[in-house]
């Protein structure tokens, strides 16, 4: 698909802003994590997105921070940059949801909670107000956030994405790894990510409280 220069620039600007914001929170330890924003038109089998380059320090801004890739995770322009190792997971989420942005971070709480509820294969959240961030307005709403295994081979994880997606839950957690949160655009994806992280901390601390720790 043809991408206008201003579409590319807007996507890079959105990524630059969100990268700085999340890096300031310490959500990209040791160059971990990745961010992407879809660019231009969309068909499930043909789309383009901007994504963070592999191995970059996300606490600083450089001209080599982002690149464009297609639906297969392959660069669409001549470049020496490599897309994030987890680009295929982004590709699958875009293909299946038509989202406009996907943000992936590693935090202490999303790692702890994924291990705590691993046998259940989902993280239960019951009646917490911030569930409304996902446009779920039921009184005392209860949700289950899916957890996938963290295989070393990214294609093995990507194959499981379709079966894990819950239409009203804009996120998937990898066990002892991190959260993928998405939305219609960068603003919404950030809102969803912040809500997930709040809920993870709440559920984990609530578990400790009821354990009497």
From TrEMBL:
Binds 1 zinc ion per subunit. Signal peptide: none annotated. Pathway: Amino-acid biosynthesis; L-methionine biosynthesis via salvage pathway; L-methionine from S-methyl-5-thio-alpha-D-ribose 1-phosphate: step 2/6. Zn(2+) binds at residues 104, 106. Its cofactor is Zn(2+). InterPro entries: Aldolase_II/adducin_N, Aldolase_II/adducin_N_sf, MethylthioRu-1-P_deHdtase_MtnB. Its EC number is 4.2.1.109. GO terms for molecular function: methylthioribulose 1-phosphate dehydratase activity. Keywords: Amino-acid biosynthesis, Lyase, Metal-binding, Methionine biosynthesis, Zinc. Residues 13-204 form the Class II aldolase/adducin N-terminal domain. Pfam families: Aldolase_II (PF00596). It catalyses: 5-(methylsulfanyl)-D-ribulose 1-phosphate = 5-methylsulfanyl-2,3-dioxopentyl phosphate + H2O. Catalyzes the dehydration of methylthioribulose-1-phosphate (MTRu-1-P) into 2,3-diketo-5-methylthiopentyl-1-phosphate (DK-MTP-1-P). Belongs to the aldolase class II family. MtnB subfamily. This is Methylthioribulose-1-phosphate dehydratase. The lineage of its organism: Bacteria, Bacillati, Bacillota, Bacilli, Bacillales.
């Amino acid at each position: 698909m043809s991408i206008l220069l201003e579409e590319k620039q807007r996507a890079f600007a959105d990524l630059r802003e969100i990268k700085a914001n999340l890096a300031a929170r310490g959500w990209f330890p040791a160059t971990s994590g990745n961010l992407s924003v879809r660019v231009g038109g969309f068909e499930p089998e043909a789309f383009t997105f901007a994504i963070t380059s592999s191995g970059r320090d996300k606490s600083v801004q450089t001209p080599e921070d982002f690149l464009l890739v297609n639906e297969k995770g392959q660069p669409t322009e001549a470049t020496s940059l490599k897309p994030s190792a987890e680009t295929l997971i982004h590709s699958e989420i875009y293909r299946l949801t038509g989202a406009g942005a996907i943000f992936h971070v590693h935090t202490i709480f999303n790692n702890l909670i994924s291990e705590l509820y691993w046998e259940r294969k989902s993280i239960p959240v019951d009646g917490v107000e911030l569930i409304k961030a996902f446009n779920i307005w039921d009184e005392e709403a209860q949700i289950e956030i899916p957890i996938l295994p963290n295989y070393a081979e990214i294609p093995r994880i990507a194959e499981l994405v379709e079966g894990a997606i819950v239409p009203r839950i804009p996120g998937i957690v990898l066990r002892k790894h991190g959260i993928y949160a998405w939305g219609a655009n960068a603003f919404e994806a950030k809102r969803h990510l912040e809500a997930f992280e709040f809920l993870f901390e709440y559920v984990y601390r609530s578990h400790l409280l009821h354990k009497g720790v």
